[in-house]
Specification:
Elements: H1 6-23, E1 27-31, H2 37-43, E2 52-57, H3 61-68, H4 72-78, H5 83-97, E3 101-107, E4 122-129, E5 134-140, H6 145-176
Parallel strand pairs: 1-2, 1-3
Antiparallel strand pairs: 3-4, 4-5
Length: 178
Amino acid sequence: MNIPQDFELVELARKVGQRLAAAKLTLAAAESCTGGLIGHLITENAGCSDYFMGSAVVYSYAAKEGVLGVDHATLLAEGAVSDAVARQMAQGSRRLFDTDVALAVTGIAGPGGGLPNKPVGTVYIAINARDDYTDSRHFCWDADRTGNKLLSAQAALELALAYLECRERSFNGRRSAR
């Protein structure tokens, strides 16, 4: 497993930003185990204020509920590290920041906190877009705390880039069909 370097992630964030700016779309994030890393990577690029509205670092259940509107019953039934919570975090972030697209990351960075069914390195990443697009991914990284955070931020930015590229192809296909 290759742990990405900071400069590689800043470049990936730049690519996401270029696509957002070209499409005149805005982005927000909701971060738990990444602790604001996605927001940091995006804001390393000049001009990001054109498309990046903010990131909510919501580490606790109370913050997930109070800031993003994550359902208390879902947190109790599924746990904070779950697909359902990641999806609700993305929806809540998009609403909170009134953006076109939002990313969310929740997981167990380590070194402690793992469970038999959710070992250290378990991460859920979700994306939610105003066009009713929602997707999520599950990962189980095998790195140290820093590596798990870097890999999670990379996966979130790659999910955003994939969505934006797909959206762009779809838009260009509709335009050329005329």
